[in-house]
Specification:
The protein is mainly β. It has three helices and 27 strands. The strands form six sheets. Strands 1, 3, 4, 6, 11, 12, 13 and 16 form an eight-stranded antiparallel beta sheet that branches. A hairpin with a 2-residue loop joins strand 11 and strand 12. It starts with 13 loop residues before the first helix and ends in a 6-residue tail after the last helix. About 35% of the residues are buried.
Length: about 400
């Protein structure tokens, strides 16, 4: 551990965290100091080269530092991305995600991430002022999802292209599915490099005061994946990254269930000491047992504790106790036997006894109590036959 040691070597491995086997194709944390290039955390190494008269500047982001874009002369161009891993096919699947915060709502496009204007993009649109994710379909036009934008607030924005649908999520919740289309007979163009905070493909458009659709605001944690992330994934990421977030937890199933007494041997008619469970792993939500315990014993389904007074001798048997929570369950086999109470209070009819040599004595008979549940049986010669009828364990 190197807590507080600023000189300790960084042994983290971002390429293992953002593994391309899990769909990550480019991850820019945008947390570099100063106004230089921005590095890709995946093994693909898609470095964003700072471009423009004023480079994207370091600023406070959602997670640590982010980048600020001035809307007039700052962006990152991702060299070598025109072909290969970021050249997603028409129809996807792919996912674009980023934390965004616009400074302005005006009459210009402000692009967050583009791969040309005729392939795919994430942007702030003019006039109607919408957050938008869009894909250009060959000789058909743009298919987009839009939702109303506002300036001055961080939003977690996710666009997903999967087959015939393009979806937009804001702050972990879906807000649109393919709710805007703009027809065009032009061909799909895939030859442009990706750009963070701008667009290299603006030919044929009235660019006005924003020649390359440059973004005016802040961007943090920009990610591209070659898979359609699930709604649960998006919600989890939002809760994990947002300020004051309630990070979802994965509940461990209970493990290694045991009982304080196992095997357990009890005496009919005698109250037992509480037999309590213990387990490792996640907290137990409920307990169950099968088959039912011997008569007189009580099983608490909330705590798993066994208490009571057994009433009937019962041969040894195994009872399966199961501890459960939302993450799973674990079981233990609990052995229980209930026996008869041993004889008690043995007496003799004559005690002490004095006998005379050569004189026959009167029979000196024993008397003993034996309990089985609530019944009391007396053992002596006159009720020997009745004693044989007492139920025996086993």
């Amino acid at each position: 551990m190197f807590w507080g040691n600023a000189a300790a070597a960084d042994s983290s491995r971002s390429i293992a965290v953002f593994d391309t086997a899990n769909g990550y194709q480019a991850v820019w944390h945008l947390g570099e100091a100063g106004a230089g290039n921005t590095n890709d955390a995946t093994v693909n190494n898609f470095t964003g080269t700072a471009s423009g008269a004023t480079k994207p500047a370091e600023t406070v982001g959602i997670i640590g530092r982010g980048k600020s874009f001035d809307g007039t002369a700052s962006s990152f161009v991702v060299a070598g991305s025109a072909t290969g891993k970021l050249d997603f096919p028409q129809g996807g699947p792919y996912t674009i995600s980023a934390w965004v915060n616009t400074n302005v709502i005006d009459g210009f496009y402000h692009d967050i991430l583009t791969k040309g204007d005729h392939q795919y993009s994430m942007a702030l649109t003019p006039t109607t002022s919408n957050w938008q994710v869009s894909e250009f379909e060959n000789a058909t036009g743009w298919l987009s999802s839009r939702s109303v934008a506002a300036a001055g607030a961080w939003r977690y924005m996710v666009g997903i292209r999967n087959g015939n649908t393009i979806s937009l999520y804001l702050d972990g919740a879906k807000v649109a599915d393919s709710n805007f289309a703009y027809p065009s007979a032009l061909a799909r163009v895939t030859t442009f490099n990706a750009v963070i905070g701008g667009n290299l493909d603006t030919a044929g458009y009235g660019t006005g005061g924003n020649g390359n659709h440059l973004f005016n605001g802040m961007i943090d944690e920009l990610c591209l994946a070659n898979t359609a992330r699930s709604a649960d994934w998006i919600k989890l990421t939002y809760e994990n990254e947002r300020p004051g977030g309630t990070m979802s937890t994965f509940l461990l199933a209970p493990r290694s269930l045991t009982y304080s007494t196992n095997p357990a041997s009890y005496v009919a008619g005698t109250a037992i000491a509480a037999n309590s469970p213990a387990s490792t792993g996640g907290a137990v939500a409920s307990y169950s047992v099968a088959p039912a315990l011997p008569a007189g014993l009580t099983f608490n389904t909330a705590t798993g504790v066994i208490t009571g007074t057994p009433t009937t001798p019962t041969a040894q048997a195994n009872y399966t106790v199961t501890a459960t929570n939302a993450g799973g369950s674990t079981s233990v086999s609990l052995s229980i036997t209930v026996t008869l109470a041993p004889p008690a209070n043995l007496t003799y009819s004559s005690n002490p006894a004095t006998y005379v040599t050569g004189t026959a004595i009167t029979a000196n008979s024993p008397d003993v109590n034996r309990r089985c549940g609530r019944l009391v049986f007396r053992w002596h010669r006159r009720c020997r036959r009745a004693w044989r009828s007492i139920p025996q364990p086993g």
